[in-house]
Q: What sequence folds into this?
C-alpha cells in the first residue's frame, strides 16, 4: 500500500519495477529513491534517529540542539524543500518560531496517490503560500512537478531551493565523483558551518576548481572526505538543460532541471567535523542544492543582494499568481 512507515516516520511510498520512492508526511522530505537492482538509496539518512517535526520541543529534545535549525534537523532526510527562504531566519523571525530554510521543511503534507504516482499538498500560513508537488515514476526516472501559489494580496520575493543531500553507502571517499553543468562560481562570503580556514572567503572561480585559503585550489568533483566541513560554494548553471550527477561504482544518480527555473547550484560537505548536537562528529553527507538563490542567507540579505553575476538571487511570485516548475531525478548505469 502507498501509506507506509520509513525509519519510524509516517510516509507514503510509490514504486515501479526499477525504483521505490518514499516521501515523509511531515517535512515532505523525499527520504529515498531506491534503485532496486543495485539495492542502493543515494539520498542521505541522518545517523541520528529522527522524529516528526510537530513533536519537537527544545525542552524535551535537547539531542537536536537548541536553535532555529533544531526543528528541521529533528526530522530532515534526503531531498528537502527550502521555502520561502534558503538559509537562516533573522533573529526576530527565529524568536517568532521560523525554522532554518522556512516553513516547507517542517510542514505537514497531505499525500495521496497510486502505486507509481503521488500528489502532495501543503499550506504555509506564515508566508501565505500554497504548495503542490506531483511525483511520477517512469523507468529509472522520478519526474517532479511543483506549483507554488501566492495566496496573499502582496507580491512576494521568495527563496525556493531543492536541498538534495546524498549520503553513505553511495557517498564514499575516493569512490563517488560529481559532475555538473556549472560555470561561474563563488565561495561563501563568510564562515560556513566550520568551513572557515579551508576555502578562500568570497572568492570567484570557474567550476570545478575552488580556491583554497592559503593558495592552490581543490577540485569539487571527487568526494574526498575532507578533514573539516567544506565551505559552501555556489555555481551558476551554464546551460538551460541544467544537471548534476554523482557516480559510484558504475551507477550514476542525478537531477535535471531548467536553468530558467533554478539558476544556482549550491554545494557543501559535512565530514564528521560538526561536533554539536545532533551532528556529534559522526555525520557524512554532501549537499547538491539547486534553486533560485545563490547563497544560504536571511531574507533581508537575499533581497539586499538582489543578484550575483547579473542573475537574480530570489524569485517574485505576484499576488494571487501561481508558478509551476518541472525537474527529474534519474539513474543511469
A:
Amino acid at each position: 500500500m502507498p501509506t507506509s512507515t520509513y525509519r519510524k516516520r509516517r510516509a507514503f511510498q510509490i514504486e515501479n519495477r526499477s525504483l521505490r520512492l518514499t516521501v515523509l508526511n511531515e517535512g515532505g522530505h523525499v527520504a529515498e529513491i531506491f534503485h532496486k537492482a543495485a539495492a542502493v538509496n543515494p539520498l542521505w539518512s541522518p545517523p541520528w534517529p529522527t522524529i516528526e517535526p510537530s513533536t519537537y520541543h527544545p525542552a524535551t529534545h535537547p539531542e537536536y540542539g537548541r536553535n532555529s535549525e533544531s526543528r528541521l534537523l529533528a526530522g530532515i532526510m534526503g531531498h528537502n524543500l527550502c521555502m520561502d527562504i534558503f538559509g537562516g531566519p533573522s533573529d526576530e523571525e527565529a524568536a517568532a518560531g521560523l525554522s532554518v530554510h522556512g516553513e516547507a521543511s517542517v510542514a505537514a503534507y497531505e499525500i495521496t496517490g497510486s502505486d507509481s504516482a503521488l500528489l502532495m499538498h501543503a499550506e504555509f500560513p506564515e508566508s501565505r503560500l500554497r504548495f503542490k508537488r506531483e511525483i511520477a515514476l517512469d523507468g529509472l526516472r522520478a519526474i517532479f512537478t511543483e506549483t507554488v501559489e501566492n495566496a496573499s494580496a502582496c507580491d512576494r520575493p521568495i527563496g525556493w531551493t531543492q536541498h538534495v543531500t546524498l549520503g553513505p553507502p553511495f557517498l564514499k571517499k575516493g569512490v563517488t565523483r560529481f559532475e555538473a553543468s556549472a560555470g561561474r562560481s563563488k565561495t561563501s562570503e563568510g564562515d560556513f558551518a566550520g568551513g572557515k580556514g579551508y576555502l578562500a572567503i568570497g572568492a570567484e572561480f570557474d567550476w570545478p576548481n575552488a580556491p583554497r585559503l592559503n593558495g592552490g585550489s581543490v577540485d569539487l568533483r571527487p568526494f574526498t572526505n575532507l578533514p573539516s566541513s567544506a565551505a559552501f560554494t555556489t555555481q551558476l548553471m551554464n546551460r538551460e538543460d541544467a544537471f548534476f550527477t554523482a557516480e559510484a561504482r558504475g551507477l550514476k544518480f542525478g537531477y535535471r532541471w531548467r536553468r530558467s527555473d533554478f539558476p544556482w547550484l549550491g554545494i557543501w560537505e559535512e565530514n564528521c567535523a560538526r561536533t554539536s548536537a545532533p551532528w556529534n562528529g559522526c555525520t557524512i553527507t554532501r549537499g547538491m542544492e539547486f534553486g533560485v538563490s545563490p547563497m544560504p542567507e536571511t531574507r533581508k540579505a537575499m533581497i539586499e543582494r538582489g543578484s550575483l553575476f547579473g542573475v537574480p538571487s530570489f524569485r517574485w511570485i505576484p499576488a494571487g499568481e501561481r508558478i509551476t516548475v518541472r525537474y527529474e531525478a534519474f539513474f543511469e548505469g
